[in-house]
Amino acid sequence: MFSRKELKKAILTSLWFVFLTMPIMVIKVDAIERTIYWRWLNSLYMAVGVFTVYLLIRLYQHRKNSRQSQAGESGPSVGFLHRLLQNPRQRLLLFAVVGAVVVIFPHFTSTYQVNVMTTALMYVMLGLGLNIVVGLAGLLDLGFVAFYAVGAYTYALLNLHYGLGFWAVLPIGGLFAALFGIILGFPVLRLRGDYLAIVTLGFGEIIRLVLENWGEFSKGPSGISNISRPGFFGIELPLEQAILYTYYLMVLFVIITIFVVNRLQDSRLGRAWIALREDEIACQAMGIDKHKTKLAAFSLGAFWAGIVGVMFAAKTTFVNPASFTFLESAIILSIVVLGGMGSIIGVIFGALILILLPEYLRALSEYRMLAFGAILVCMMIFRPQGLFANIRRHYHYHKKDSSEHDSSGQDFPKSQPS
Amino acid sequence: MDYFIELLFSGLTRGSIYALIALGYTMVYGIIGLINFAHGEIYMIGAFTAFIVATVLSIYGFPLLAIVIIAGLAAVVWASSYGYTVEKIAYKPLRHAPRLSPLISAIGMSIFLQNYVLLSQTSDFLPFPALIPDFAFMEPVAHIVGSTDLAILVTTVVVMLILTLLIKFSKLGKAMRATSQDRTMATLVGINVNRVISATFIVGSSLAAIGGLLIASHIGQINFYIGFLAGIKAFTAAVLGGIGSIPGAVLGSLILGLTESFATGYVTSDYEDVFAFTLLVLILIFKPSGLLGKAANQKV
Amino acid sequence: MKYTLRGKLVASAACVFVALSAPALSLAEDTIRFGVAGAHSGDLASYGLPSVNAAKLVIDKVNANGGINGKKVELLVEDDVCKPEVATNTATKLVSDKVDVVLGHICSGATIAAMPIYKDAGVLVMSPSATSDELTYSGNYPNFFRTIAPNAAQSPAMVDFAIDKLGLTKIAIIHDKGDYGKPLAEGAKAHVEKGGKGEVVLFEGITPGAMDYGAIVNKIKQSGAEVVVYGGYHPEASKIVTQMKKRRMDLKFVSDDGVKDDTFIKVAGEAAEGVYAAGPQDNSKNPMALAAKEEHKKAFGSDPGAFFEGAYAATVAMLNAIEKAGSTDLAALTKVLRTEKVATPVGGISFDEKGDAIGVGFSMYVVEKGNYVVAQ
To answer: Does any CB of chain C come closer than 8 Å to the CB of residue B125?
Structure first.
């Protein structure tokens, strides 16, 4: 099955890892007691583990190669889900099944599961918001959490000082975040790629630090507690029902977001974003106002984050700056990239995986973040384009002998998903 | 005046460490255009290796000088091995993937390495042995500049000189510059690009390991999380100076270190990082590709 | 698309109503469900795990003696990693598991976030470590109790010690901008200004995790302070004292409970000598504390960690209240806790109207030859 050369390579690889993990996994020192623990057993585990994993990967590659040579040159494989979605009838069926599961889900699980799912749905929305900025417009934003914080604090502060309710603040929070999106957008219009990334990262940190330090304004690191939960026609709900209510609200919001983002994507603005992402100069040459388009992307993306922020404050009833760190931005970005940039289904799956995974990995207890990091790397290696790469709209040019189509016979090149 | 000099030195110390880490970022970026988020973790692993080796040696009663040299070498060897391996596992398969995929892979790697050290060692803070002794000749000015500050400054300058010579005159350095200018062209003239990329990771990781060793013995403690914040700051410094440019990384780091120090000294440390990031935004508004970065040519 | 969307809206709305009309279920009680919540993983795990051990020890003993009022006590342990947003999930999980009382949470932020959920469910909560003033002073949480003294007691202890015992009046107050350190520092500042005997020459926050604190150490020196009062945890404190020593600065350093940790002495080494720290009052002569420590050694083979005694005391107090009240009804439990004095490892305690334990306070400790001893 394996050639001698491969086995040799497997052994060398495992030896390399044994060497690599030597000081950190084998030696543990106690500088105070001046004792050294040698844990050689770890080396053995490492060697055996790496050897097996290496061979497994080889096996996978072998099979993939042989399958490819059998199948020969095949077109880009379109995912099962995409095929489902392209057929209107099946699409309806799929929506009905998903809808039914979503609706009855809370009645078959505990309140805890519902709560976790609500959190996951919040990240779906955050992901969809960031998807506008990163996936569609191609602007790498590492400080997206700032807008989330703006939304959350808008609600927390207005609720604290003026007693405004959830529904009153919801649009305000969104608009406020959008305003911040424009404020951030202006200075960075000229920046490209990774320069933009670091400035947005800095912006996110600045917002968090101001919230942390300006105690008179934001109550500092102690945070704001006792924020009202979403009102239900003026009735205060008991906890369990409030959680259920929040869940359904979140489902509703996600549906609205999906609908809006989907329409946005196909709109004139959406196509301008995609053009901007592909080639800025060509895009300008086509007469698209680059600045306006970029600002629109920033503010629309931020808007959703602001809405989720309000929701977050209402759900946890407590906000403090510690919830809005860079790691949060990184997770949201991972959702977008993992799912497949620009793809709505991708973002939904990305969010569900990344948020539910650590929750259900709790069984692994302390190994859960280790597994999380490893899974992130593996997913990228095996599916660099994301789980569901966005399928571009294809326009096929068929030569027809009838002349009636001549006027509309533009030649669109068939583009591959990127 | 004394106060000014004190702040100047503490800013320079901080800046030097940023520079050692920022160089790794900027070199990798220059060659493969990737923000290597796991670089901060390499710095942490370098420091941890030095910690383990130094403590073991001191238990066996080695003299201080021997400990410093062996621990330093071990830190460099292992950190660069990790850098090399991380590149092979997490970035090489993604050479032709969409631009953001390696970034996520890097974030995953960073989380993985942090937790790997956390689980293999401990979550506690550990006392790092004082590898840099208090020099007797520094005693008269010890209230202004500490011995470790001096050691950090001198080491950084020496390392920078060696690096500059390496990049300017060695065959490897020339290959690196060629690869960063145009990878395809470099392949055509017979440069083994994969080998050059590996070498870049090795050199960058070695610098980070030296930084890790110096800063850990300066502040006397270590834990698995030190790489994260250091990494972000060094990355900021690299961008400030113009990412991809080696002198830029050094300049950016020093400016960042000094800004933080003077902001703390004359204004308030509450907003230390706000000053740093505001400066960054301002500089990028007026020089969109950093202080010494080359404006990227746009194909029309 | 549009059509299905509308259908879904209707369906969701319908479901909300179905859900609201469903009455809350009540389970038959056959055991007493004792929840333990706090950081059991992550970087603050060392603060949370000792309370799990304490609860285990007490409950095993109680169950071996036939339980309380004929019912066995069941332990439910949930991790909140000290994060507010996780803590709400944790609390919801405990409440939906029909928990009767909760020991926890460990961090103030997480506790504040979780409290409204317990309050709605009428669950008694007792923390061994959450020191935020808001928990008891705001009056928002009548179901909250704690076996540690609040920050409002800690900052005056630190300041009074610096001014009255050490006789130093020029004070630099430094904090780590965190939800634990900053309120402590602000409390200290207010106390100095109110007392009128001392003077705050510097009030600054530092960035936790920064590479070095050279600049802030210079600033402390420049301010002419005689003593540094620090609010925060030990990693930053040990960096500051180490760097002060390197600069040959001979200032007194007075800090809080977060620094009164043996790790601080290990990490700061020689620089730790002579550092003062406030901590829960000295219980080393209390026979119950000694016995609890022995039990821990026997069961887990190591010395107990931070907040162990407080957690042990809280477990004892809550179980005692359940026994005396004969139920787990919140009002009955509250009444017993406020009126009955119970012997615990932190002394004989009862609770005041706000929920703070009467009879616990802070002592000042000093590092001498690598150990914390009570400062004279």
So the answer is: yes
> What span, in angstroms and rounded, lies between the C-alpha atoms of C315 and C293?
15
Interface contacts (A, B; CB < 8 Å): 177
* Centroid of chain to Cα C234: 15
Q: Is B270 on the interface with C (CB under 8 A)?
A: yes
Tokens of C249: 């600065």
């080998």: which residue's tokens? B195
Residue ranges in A236-394 assigned as alpha helix (H): 239-266, 268-278, 280-285, 290-316, 326-339, 344-360, 368-382
Instruction: Give percent above pLDDT 90 in chain B.
Output: 51
CB atoms within 10 A of CB C9: 14
Is-contact C359 C348, C-beta < 8 A?
yes
Q: Are C43 and B123 inside 8 Å of each other by CB?
A: yes
Contact C367, C273 (CB under 8 A): yes
Shortest Cα distance from B287 to chain A (angstroms)?
Answer: 9
> Where are the domains positioned within chain A?
4-69, 109-382
Cα A160 to Cα A139: distance, rounded to the nearest angstrom: 35
Give the chain A residue whose CA is nearest to the CA of C9.
Answer: A252
- Looking up tokens 């202006």, which residue turns up? A186
CA distance A299 to A306: 10
What distance in Å separates residue B177's CA from the closest CA in chain C?
32
Between the alpha carbon of residue A208 and those of residues A221, B167, C204, the distances in Å are 10, 40, 17
Contact B290, B248 (CB under 8 A): yes
Nearest to B272 among C207, C243, C269 (CB): C207
ipTM over 0.85: yes
Identify whether the C-beta of residue B263 lies closer than 8 Å to the C-beta of residue B280.
Answer: no
Residue A175 in this model has a pLDDT that exceeds 90: yes
DSSP C43-89: TTHHHHHHHHHHHHHHHHHHHHTT-BTTBEEEEEEEE-TT-HHHHHH
d(CA A151, CA C173): 33
The model's pLDDT over C107-161, given as tens digits with 9 standing for 90+, comes to 888 898 899 889 888 999 999 988 888 889 888 899 999 998 888 888 999 999 9
Q: How far apart are CA C42 and CA C50, in angstroms?
A: 14
Strands C357-358, C347-351: pairing kind: antiparallel
The closest of B128, B207, B132, B130 to B166, measured between CA atoms, is B207
pLDDT digits 0-9 by tens, C231-266: 998 889 999 999 898 888 889 999 988 888 888 898
Q: What are the distances in angstroms from CA C143 to CA A184, C120, C322, C328, C331?
A: 44, 10, 14, 12, 9
Which of A112, A241, A255 faces C19 most closely, judged by CB atoms?
Answer: A241
In the Cβ-directed half-sphere of C172, how many Cα atoms lie within 13 Å?
A: 22
Q: DSSP of A188-224, one letter per residue?
A: TTT--HHHHHHHHHHHHHHHHHHHHH-HHHH-GGG-E
* Chain C residues closer than 8 Å to B265 by CB: 215, 218-219, 222
Q: How far apart are CA A215 and CA A202, in angstroms?
A: 21
Backbone φ and ψ of B37, nearest 5°: -65, -20
SS3 C11: helix
Residues of B in contact with C267 (CB under 8 A): 125-127, 220-221
Which among B44, B136, B118, A31 is positioned nearest to C269, based on CA atoms? Answer: A31
Length of chain C: 376
Read off the DSSP letter of residue A26: I
Q: Torsions phi, psi of C342, nearest 5?
A: -125, 140
CA dist A328 and A355 (Å) reads 11
pLDDT at C21: 38
Q: For chain C, which domains are there?
A: 31-148+285-360 (3.40.50.2300), 152-274 (3.40.50.2300)
